[in-house]
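Researcher: Here's a chain I'd like modeled. Treat it as a single chain, no partners, no ligands.
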Amino acid sequence: MKFRRQFTKKGNDAYAGLEFKTTSSEIKNPDGTIVFSAPNIEVPGNYSQVAADIIAQKYFRKAGVPAFVKKVEEKNIPNWLWRSEPDTEKLNKISKDKRYKGEESAKQVFDRLAGTWTYWGWKGKYFTTEQDAKIYFDEIRFMLAAQMCAPNSPQWFNTGLHWAYGIDGPSQGHYYVDFETKKLVKSQSSYEHPQPHACFIQSVQDDLVNEGGIMDLWVREARLFKYGSGTGSNFSKLRGSTEGLSGGGRSSGMMSFLRIGDRAAGAIKSGGTTRRAAKMVTVDIDHPDIEEYINWKVVEEQKVAALVAGSKLTAKNLKSVMDACNLDSYGDKERLNPKINTELKKAILNCRAVMIPENYIQRVMQFAGQGFKEIEFQTYDTDWDSEAYLTVSGQNSNNSVRVSNEFLEKVQQKGEWDLIRRTDGGVHKTINAPDLWSKISEAAWACADPGLQYDTTINEWHTCPEAGRINASNPCSEYMFIDDTACNLASINLLQFKKDDSSFDIEAYEYTTRLWTLTLEISVMMAQFPSKEIAQKSYEYRTLGLGYANIGGLLMSWGIPYDSDQGRSICAALTSIMTGISYATSAEIAGELGPFPKYNENANSMLKVMRNHKRASEGKTRGYEDLSINPVPLMSQDCPDQNLISAAKEAWTKALALGEKNGYRNAQATVIAPTGTIGLVMDCDTTGIEPDFAMVKFKKLAGGGYFKIINRVVPEALAHLGYDADQIDDMQRYAVGAGSLKDCQAISHNALISKGFTNKEIKLIEDSLESAFDIKFVFNQFTLGEEFCKNTLGISTEQMNDFTFNMLEFLGFTAEEIDVANIHVCGAMTLEGAPHLNKDHLDVFDCANVCGRIGKRFLSVDSHIKMMAAAQSFISGAISKTINMPNDASIDDCSDAYMLSWQLGIKANALYRDGSKLSQPLNSALLDEDDISEDQGIITNEQDITKRTSEVVEKIVERFVRAERDKLPHRRKGYTQKATVGGHKVYLRTGEYENGKLGEIFVDMHKEGAAFRSLMNNFAIAVSIGLQYGVPLEEFVEAFTFTRFEPQGMVTGNDTIKMSTSILDYIFRELAISYLDRNDLGHVGPEDLDSSTTGSGNSKALISEKVASRGFVRRELKVVSGGTNNVTLMPQTTSLKEDKVEINNDDSTTIVVNETKIPNLAQEIEAKIKGYEGEACGECGNFTLVRNGTCMKCNTCGATSGCS
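Model: Modeled as a single isolated chain. Structure tokens:
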């Protein structure tokens, strides 16, 4: 092949046009311990600190790089391409500890990657002349350094270690087809032929122990997981649980083997580090066990919920039994007799009420009788890596169901569907198709699995049907081809092709596509594979996976909404150009080296697919060949740049013409992958085809810590939309915050001086505000000093040590003033409500999630699906993407999303409804509340209610004697909350003092009897009088929360309360949340008021930053508490590892059982509001995981749950 220079100049170094810098890389655990450190590394000057960290931690070879190397002469290869090996003569002259080290410069990595590809490309005769090889070598190195394109992670791990450094090792059981002899060969080396492929599809037969069978698959999967790759399989050939065995008896069934494979995958840390293996399980819709498979993860998550709730209830109640058995008021025998010991009797009854087994209760009593004073019972939490999840199955794979057009038509027609036995092809069972469809939607709504793969659509676009059907996909669903094949990926960073005049550089984009198509083709030729079958079929079909990233960032920079006809047209055009040029390049290579070996028998089918792609690029709506569902065509009239439309059409004209002449070198050319870790290396704002996830990002500093910046394309977008520099600066400051109280009207410097602050304390505050996430975290003893807080401000030691203490409220600032100051200092983290911004431009800045403290907007479900459909028409593989749904999405919404995906010709779809995983806090709830309440003990009998009520009455009397009544103003603020408790409507109205303190309540019951309504009215009056005489609201909350009487049950109409044990319980929980910021109530935490049950979404919430009522605003709906004093480090939870809890008393004996720590929910909440998922990274522990296709990636260390 011939090449010309696009980015480099002849005679100059490849990096001549780029600057490089020396920096340090350090990644820390949440507890501050260092995970990785690399001082004085060299990276391109355009690299962010995150990109530098990723390439240093993930992709630099850490050891085995010789200090001196020498070239190994090879015949017929230019000397500048000779491979290297350690120069032992020079190495022996230096000390042993200096002979070998790790890579220290990104240039070393770029050189070994590009050098290896050029080396094998020369051997494979891909270059016409030596000069063409040199051009390719330089241009690829430049593009890597300039963040224009990047290959998948296994290339960075493995490629070039043998060529550049002579690193090698024994064979790991891999195979390859020799490109010269065309014979299958078993590898004799670990790295001479690298393993550059990330995505695999493997077959499995209905056989237990033979090669190609079930148990053999686990071994093949393990080999892939170990080296960081991912794999998928279709298990539909396995017989169902009711089918017979050849030797008699019944089969264990497909599900039993899936559970085994799931546990095997969970035991292997992918690549030796990440939290789980990347695996896809696919099952056809007509399998006999399909119903059990659909509900697999739903049932397993129910088990987790039961384990969590059950373990904590058991621990709590057994402790009460132990405590009752050790009361000093009874003798040794009496204290163990529940007929005498009334406290023990009550504890036993409470245990029985929550179904704790009698023998466990008796066991604790027996321990107490033997002298034990304490017992620790292991409890569980809903963290993904916790013991609760480790005890259930189905958590180590993405699950998909293969649905055919026939089934979907049966659903529409409300027809019947047959489940087919695998042994004889007979009908196992006939079920109602809509009922089965509903089960899929319900499961996806409940736990985000299964996803759907549209079997008919996939196989109608199959380029090689003579090779067999496409049955499965890789873990992220972008690679779909026949079984026992592999795909290596690379992604182009679209934003790098935006010129200074904002136009798109089509010429450079096409040039890059051509070079990287060749790079992936060379990678197939040089690679080794984990099995004979994959090696053989990869040689025969040579599938590639070129894609792109940053479409969301590119559209935003142009001021074009992601959810718009313009945006979809641009996406379609760019995808059409990429795939058309890639296939044209494949045909060009075929003209020189021949098509892929199995091309001739599939030529007609492949050319048919090419013609259908070409028709879509021409905007045609009919005339497609052998397609049940026509693709979404390129809508040229919607594209603002007609040059893109012309290029898209020309690319397919060229691809088809060359293919008809030469055939194609590759059966598939393009996919759209998640671009997880490589997206971070390229500093992509958005990954794959995804929109952005947050408007404000936290940029990492080289010395550690973070600072807030607006998404880097936002200023470009605002300028493109016509705003001037001053307006853009105002809007940026609104989103990011001023980082200072200097010009703040709500909490000014003068206001602080009037409270006793001096210039010294104000400077301390100002120094900490720049990186603060919330100003509350700055106003504390750690910033101001204990002496000043105690002596000048009059804060007690107890208050300073109380993490719920709010110094600003103590100083007399209202909730509204604190909110306004927070927006001024820390920013809204959204452009909603920004000064100068035209409301018509808001959709340009819509993200996948709600942004910031007061944001309400997010992209619709349909916008994700329509963008996928626009691109799918021009992708030879598929697209990895998560369809984000709000928490209040219904089961019907899930069903409609799946159906729309099919109707628009998408090949696969995965839904993620906010909060559908127990392990993740809700986006919606987090934006609606900060404090999650904790039960301090459920009252189960009338005596306790009477006792606690009388205690409060006594306190009310005491306060009455000592205090004077503080009457409310005649015109006062407050809020009205309507809700339904156990089917009974309740109206709660509050009245507030000027400072926002609660002073009265009114309670009305809808359509209740006169006596009951009057009783509630008078009860409210009694409480109001108590409040006005100084009885703290805390006393009422303590007395009446969790009282139990009818009406009780489900609560609807309230954003934060979903279950109540009585009307009084509901009322005082609502008041505590609104007025007390009750972190002590919040200690109930996940087991009683888990975040997955307390919110219904805030996409429709009407939150104003200027409302008067503190209770209505619920300051905590907008500003979260918890976290660090300032955000110099990302917010982190406690480490989710087991610690031993040992209680050693001199006069007692203790049983010690491991107890799992409960994560700090406030820090998860903070991470969610910043746009992250709220889960801890399994590798570095930081809360910086974001959705990435169908997987997740960590923005701190680059770990990904996928295979790229």
